[in-house]
Amino acid sequence: MEEKDQKQQTKNSTTTSAVKPDKGHHPEKPSANRQSSEKSSDTNEVVIEIKHLKKSFGSKDVLKDINLTVRRGENVVVLGKSGQGKSVTIQCIVGMLMPDGGTLKVFGEEVCDLNEKELKELRIKIGFLFQSGALYDSMTVRENLEFPLTRVLKLKDQAEIDKRVKEVLEGVGLADAADKMPSDLSGGMRKRAGLARTLIVHPEIMLYDEPTTGLDPITSREISELILSMQKKYKTTSIIITHDMECARITSDRVVIMNDGEYIEEGTFDGLQKSKNELVKSFFKDIS
Ligand SMILES: Nc1ncnc2c1ncn2[C@@H]1O[C@H](COP(=O)(O)OP(=O)(O)O)[C@@H](O)[C@H]1O
Ligand SMILES: [Mg+2]
């Protein structure tokens, strides 16, 4: 099922002309907001601000009016049925999809206005865990982890690289798996290794797209707890897309419910559990 979703994603991204907007004609802007993207102790700092976001594919209006503010260090869970546009929303956040309307600011900068270079800089600060958490099959876990350090962060100091690999593997509970091949890992371990590869560059924002899909309940729970502990350890700001209520309960500071192109309700997990809205209630119906 994961594979199918991944293919769907790949297929989608090649069948629309909106995926890769041409940003060539945007002039270089002075980076006035750069400072705001540095780690600060201001926990009220708005990291992601989405207002009236719209996105359609042909005649299909997928995002109609999305509004969301995420503050530094917060874990926001987006709950919604399949095909609601949850993945589309996060693809807009990283500039992979161009919205049709509204505003979308990350670290105070309008994502649509960024040129290629600025977009690349932004993406270094955003960890994106896809549904499949893809690892390179021909590389060991260690090589998979070293890859973003040498290619993205351009680190050269092997001692620093070794330190980061060791630290992140311990963090995700895979200290003994450094020299294993991905094919030797279980599904849950692969997910952990994928998460480690994303976290090793210390992203300020993490976007998790269905992090527990395809995993058994026990492993799902472990991954959810890992997401929570990574938030505490790295002080990351996260959006977690899921329809796994246990994952939502464990990881969320705040939950938003998406339906028909809008976020219809938001609150804490416990707060939403008491909602009178029928749709919201339907998400919680199997929870005791
Ligand atoms: N690149 C794309 N081109 C055309 N349609 C797309 C594209 N991406 C997503 N869609 C459509 O948008 C809708 C929402 O998709 P998605 O965000 O993947 O849903 P969710 O993640 O909530 O399950 C679906 O109908 C999907 O087919
Ligand atoms: Mg999706």
UniProtKB/TrEMBL annotation:
CDD domains attached to this UniProt entry: ABC_Org_Solvent_Resistant (cd03261)
Compositional bias of kind Basic and acidic residues: 20-42
GO molecular function, one term: ATP binding
Gene3D superfamilies in the cross-refs: P-loop containing nucleotide triphosphate hydrolases
Matching Pfam families: ABC_tran
Keywords, comma-separated and alphabetical: ATP-binding, Nucleotide-binding, Transport
Record domain ABC transporter: where: 48-285
Region span, Disordered: 1-44
Name assigned to this protein: ABC transporter ATP-binding protein
Organism expressing this protein natively: Mucilaginibacter ximonensis
